[in-house]
Here is the input.
Amino acid sequence: MMRKRTLATMITTATVGLLVLSACGPQSANFAAGFKSKDPTTFVIQEIAGGPATLDPALAYDSASGEILQNVYDTLVFFDREKKSDLVPMLATEVPTVKNGGISADGLTVTFKIRDGVKFHSGEEMTVEDVAFTFQRGLLSAGSNSPQWLFVEPLFGSTIYNDIVDQLDPDGEKGLIDNRDGLKAEDSGALVGLCETVKSKIVADSAANTVTFHLAQPWGPFVTTFANMWGSVLPKAWVAANGGWDGDCATWQNYYAPTADELNESGIGKKVNGTGPYKLKEWGDNELILEANENYWITKPLWSGAPTGAPKLKTVIIKYVEEFSTRFAAMQAGDADMIQAGSAQDWPVMDEAVGATCDQDGVCTIDDAAKPLVRYVNQDVSNRTDAFFNFKINTEGGNDFIGSGKIDGNGVPPDFFSDVHVRRAFAYCFDWDIYIRDVAQGEGQQANNVMLLGELGDDAKGMHYSYDEAKCAEEFKASTWKSEDGKSLWDTGFRLIVGYNAGNTMRQAVAQIFRDNISAVNPLFKVESQSLEWPNYLEAYQGKKLPFFIIGWIEDIPDPHNWTFTYTAGAFGGKQGMPQELKDQFRPLVESGAKEIDPAKRTEIYKEFNKLYYENVPAVLLAQTGGRRYMQRWVNGYYTNSLYSYNYYYVLSKS
Amino acid sequence: MINYIIRRLMIMPITLFGMTILIFLMLWILGPSARSALYVSDIPKNEAVMKGIITKYGLDDPIYVQYWSWLVGRPDPDKPGETIGGILRGDFGYSRTFSRPVMELIQLRFPATLELTLYAFLPIILVGVWLGVQAAVRHNQWIDQIARLFSIVGYSFPVFVLGILLMMIFYAQLRWFPVERISDWVKMADYTKYTSLVTVDAILNGRLDIWWDAIRHMVLPIITLSYTSWAAFLRITRSSMLETLRQEYVTTARAKGVAENDVINKHARPNALIPVVTYSGITVAYLLGGVVITETIFNFPGMGSAAANAAGGFDVVTVLAFTLVTGLILILANLIVDILYAMLDPRIRLG
Amino acid sequence: MPEVLAVKDLVTKFYTDTETVHAVNGVSFHVDEAETLGVVGESGCGKSVSMHSLLRLIPIPPGRIESGQAIFQGRDLLRMSPGEIRQVRGAQIGMVFQDPMTSLNPVITIEKQVAEPLLIHRGMTNAEARTRVVELLTHVGIPCPEKRLADYPHQFSGGMRQRVMIAMALACSPSLLIADEPTTALDVTIQAQFVELVKKLRDDFQMSIIWITHDLGVIAGIAQRVAVMYAGFIVEHATVKELYANPQHPYTRGLLGSLPRLDETRSVRLVNIKGLPPDMCQPPVGCPFVPRCPYAFDHCKAENPPLASVNNGHTSACWWDIDLGKPRG
Here is the structure.
């Protein structure tokens, strides 16, 4: 008969045994032996869950879609291997410059010489008509979610939304943006006229085999804009046959701002007919398969060492897998050639299986001959996350994040951050070292200015903030906020809750750093951090109720204008409710910086911009954190170009 | 018996109707902009556009009008003469998360879940019940103690810990059982798909290699699901069995000279199984609704992971469609459980 | 008359984690052919356990038949193998239980349940068994049995169910029927019917019966001899007439005195036996009835009185002679 004591002993032994067993798992690992892959023609990569939103290059603006477009379509020019600022000709025969006449002396005319003998996947040959049509259609289909503003701005000059409908509604009062029904109701003469204007700005010349763009202003980064996914060339007939615009100026408004499902039902968003090295074989609900284009047109390598002809990887399978452990298990089992980490937290886990390390200069060292993975560390990145102050915190329906809503020691007023001293104080109270350590295992560098480190306009010697408790206190004391009975902010104190979505280490780190440092400066300053579930966070975020917007931006083109515009007049300036007077101060600098062609003069303009940004500190610029890539050692040919939308499979192969 | 089934079948539409009302009420509370996702794929941020959408699709109509449109559809404002929407027509709206109509998503995901359930419920239920009977018959002996310990450990293991542990050992290291639903070569393989169940199609095509591949992929998820569920089955069966073995009619059976095996299996077990049937029904319904954590870990493309992804992205339309499907499954499962009850227990069948 | 069953010194105990229950403490009795023995006693006195022990229906952990003998048709039931005792159960010894509601399996048809012993012990086919079942059901007085074969126990009334139980127990014409409080759960009128039925069956089948009850009134109607049990012992054993006329044991007197009688003209207060039932977890020391006995004296506490002959065929286990008012000589 089993006594109670014996049962208890059994339970304890079993539990201990199981714990020991689970601890034994990864350490006594037995990874895939040898560094040859089983199937060198198929490449399997496991990425974070998601998948493309649409495969229409005119509308796609996310990196999941970009990754596919980059591999199935070609662009007129492309990046020279890992260099962000050097271009090589792709569908064009040479990169237009002032020197070779591709760019006119006044910078207002840019002509591309188009290559012959390039075929689309369906077999038709690409013509200059296709090229011109692609960009005309892009402009006319735009919408606020698309990347077309990158073309609208140089071709038409800066407007409110930098969307094509601004031409019909310059003050934005008719509410035409994203409003197809409203657009269709416009005067047909005006509509046809706008279409003709677009066609006159993008002109194909089949005799000379060129496509010419007529700009409204000189635009330094214009040619570079064509190197990314929105520069993909589509065949005109195929677009028309698959529910897209056919080029007739009477009907373009019917295709304006299509929704993703409209496209997916008619084909362009779900299907691909490009000139690129891969064809889309299948797009399932959690994976996507590319197959090699055996008739790929490249005969001369784009740069020395570049591949030609059909790609070496015949099949690329991209799986969207949510759980990091599953992705890593696939790496260990040898079923995945490359995986995406979830965050920097996952790096130490993968490091256990790493046998070789390559640094940012491409120098590789072997740490352990037996381990199967290789990691690329400190790789260049083209994105950064910053903390934008919310100038007009929305109190509609109540707002718990600002407490009492007054200066009384228990809250902050909704326009708390309109006081520049408060903003500066917060900036001085931020600790970049701790942030970089928490968020990127210590691999990163504080940003100096809004543009990327080392980019034109970036000034390492210019003024920027650093963690300084004394200055933080000084700025708080200089604040113009007073309580109802006239006491200063310093003597009254305040209360503020910084919300972040559970699981997001970046936002959590920012919240906690502010919380710790500001409370240390003055015990009356109560800054709290609060973890929110995603739906609650999203609601607070979209409702503009949070005191900070902590968001990131990936550069579209390697040019400081992409940053200066977005951070002031563009998306982020709007989001944070930047006061019009401040925007008006930035605007002339942003516009002149874009129009100036001479890099030396541009640097001077951006110096002014940086100084203005520093003095007003509308956002606390955080840090550029180095990226890492992990893959099997049998993967050859990898290099990082931070402007790529993830991978370019044409250059990869497996041994 | 037939009358009983007919009576139950007649009540079913009322239950279904009630469920659709509840789900529609949830949609209603969320407001017209969330409901616009039933008809458009991008919820417009622009106020003017939003107002246009609301008028265009009648999102400010009275509640009963909207309920009816949601149920059977409404005339398509863009394509005159055609209908748009209507869950009874199979139009559940568009899924932002998966970039396709929700109905298409369900058609892709449900067969995977169905297949996994088909192969999982037998090990889960049969082994769990068998463990329970053994534990009861030999109760307080060492088999009973071991069985109970074994299953309590399984029940206490968080599903994701067990799943990841199994994946690390049997997939990453030993490579015995892979994850996902089928291997890549099967995806490329050329065979006719009559149903969307890989194992069935494989047999119909005479491709045993494909069949075996599909089975291998289900082993780890099934073990994970089973081990965490056995404890519950064991407990219910064991206590029900112990209860039954105490009954007078068991002694009567013995007093008639019935062999002990028959006493357990023919006299005691049919009575003991009655509460187990309810739990089995719930378990099968739960499996058919998609097992979120197991599917996510093993990257098994079923209903659970799809619903979870959609929920994480606040994709209301998709989540509610899955709720409808799961609700329907539960109602059907309850009906089947009730029928099984009647088959097992004549006291219920004959009133 | 030849003996059908002779039980000698049966001892059964139950061992649990915390205590030991001394359920049956050395019980001896016999049943002759075509004779009915009544076994009377209050709840917990060990009468059911004794009978269950005979057929080895006691759950073996925690129970244990410690010692004793039960010779039935020349063989000791207590020493048979499980296979052998199974041959006896339902075939040579039939058993009827107290609560017909719970003694019949609710999910098996009447036909199957009654036919079961026939299929096991007589090797009949289903068709043969069905015929016999109809015969049996008719014999026990169930109207239109052919129509009720596919019915379930819950579709019968309490009295009918008990008749089914009898039919089931008698299916293989056993020589001994053990009836464990078969009428306790029935109403009085049904009880009477049932007793009549059993008497008729007894004559038809010529079988011996052990009838367990706590109701002395019922015993008078059916038994020839009676054994009175208390605290796991048989304390008195006599023919029915003798017992009712001349009860020797103080407990028996108490039981009889507590019976309401129809022929009492004046309202007489019912006499109850003072005290509480014995604690079966204590091993017996001395006479177990001491705490409740009006006649107890020193010797009673020291030594447990054995069954001693009082009269011809009448035994009683008591040190005190009630009629003479002094210890037995």
